[in-house]
């Protein structure tokens, strides 16, 4: 077993880190306050291959591995978790669903502009009454001649307002339950599609989250994504991979929060010495680093298994659960180490603490990860 990254991967890490330090760090709080995803960043992200990280060359992607993907996501999250959430949702949900289940013409038409950063993806599963129980969705798609007509409202959709290409899950046969849900590709500007309320969030504020409303929104049969009735099953497969991305985001966020706390612990003096000399502060930093390294290994293992083409339902859920819970703890201790300065916006600890909570909620809560893990682990009791 080799637990070291390759030279190319170390180079990739440095490249994305330099980019994040130069292009994100100076604007983090400005974007947080504006609560808007900086669209002007997309072309620069695309120039580094970050809008199509894992997709093959022929679709305009950077053809990186799942482990490489984790490195990119970590490095963005280390500096700005909310910009990173947008990049992860674009790559790991909307674009990934089209890559995994789209036809060749759909990939050419929709994936290429997404992977090259000409367009931004969204992925709409959640509704106000169906979050964890996503299969209980109410949005319908009804066949009318050669077309499908969508009606319903999606909730908490990343890029619900700014997304150009949206993958939408809708009920095509109520009688068939979760096997009666299909996926559709809907483009911004389609008649009957409009953005609803934009959420005013605790954290991840530079990543736009909105309601999306479908009112007799008509799409052609060619816009069905995957096989009719397989939309929910496919969505779960997309989430298996997406969760590795959120685990990497949590690892990167925890890395940023840890580094900020470590720096502060050496700088801040009380009782005539740096607070980093006090045993209880050192213990917090040691525990943070130890847990963080464990989370990183779980995440890389899930990614390496994905690269080997193996099923990762268990490993992705474990990585997501452990990394997000670890990141919450690290970000909280980061605030504690900063004392009162952790509670104000002059230091980055406050923003990591606000942003981190999403990682235990998005793409399946911690409770749902435990259900997924239990289903894999405890079937023979
Ligand atoms: C910033 C942000 C971005 C998002 N982006 C997207 C997106 O792009 N696309 C999309 O489709 N969705 C998106 N979501 C939605 C997200 O995936 C859901 O919020 C999440 O799945 C939880 O659903 P819920 O909010 O309805 O909570 P609920 O499902 O109502 O859960 C409430 C509580 O009950 C617990 N719970 C529920 N069921 C069980 C159970 N069986 N056992 C134990 N506990 C349980 C949960 O763990 C949680 O603690 C986003 C959410 C946020 C906040």
> What's the SSE pattern?
HHHHHHEEEEEEEEHEEHHHH
Shape assignment: globular
The hetero compounds bound to this protein are: flavin-adenine dinucleotide
Assembly state here? Answer: single chain
Would you identify the regions where 5 or more consecutive residues have pLDDT less than 50? none
Taking the sheet with the most strands, its summary is: 4 strands, mixed
Q: How many DSSP-defined strands?
A: 10
Descriptive report:
- With 381 residues, the chain is an alpha+beta fold.
- The protein contains eleven helices and ten strands.
- The chain has helices spanning 7-24, 28-34, 41-47, 66-79, 81-101, 104-115, 231-267, 279-307, 313-338, 349-356, 366-377, and strands at 121-124, 140-144, 147-158, 165-171, 181-187, 193-198, 209-220, 224-225, 269-270, 273-274.
- The protein has a four-stranded mixed sheet, with helices on one face.
- A hairpin with a 2-residue loop joins strand 2 (140-144) and strand 3.
- Helix 9 (313-338) runs antiparallel to helix 11 (366-377).
- The longest helix is centred in the middle third of the chain and has 37 residues, at 231-267.
- It is globular, with a radius of gyration of 21 Å.
- The two termini are 31 Å apart.
- The mean pLDDT is 97.
- The structure holds flavin-adenine dinucleotide (FAD).
- Flavin-adenine dinucleotide binds next to strand 1, strand 3 and helix 11.
- Residues 89, 123-126, 131-132, 156-158, 201, 204, 209, 358, 361-365, 367-368, 371 line the site of flavin-adenine dinucleotide.
Task: Output the keywords.
single chain; 381 residues; alpha+beta; 4-stranded mixed beta sheet; 4-stranded antiparallel beta sheet; 10 strands; globular; binds flavin-adenine dinucleotide
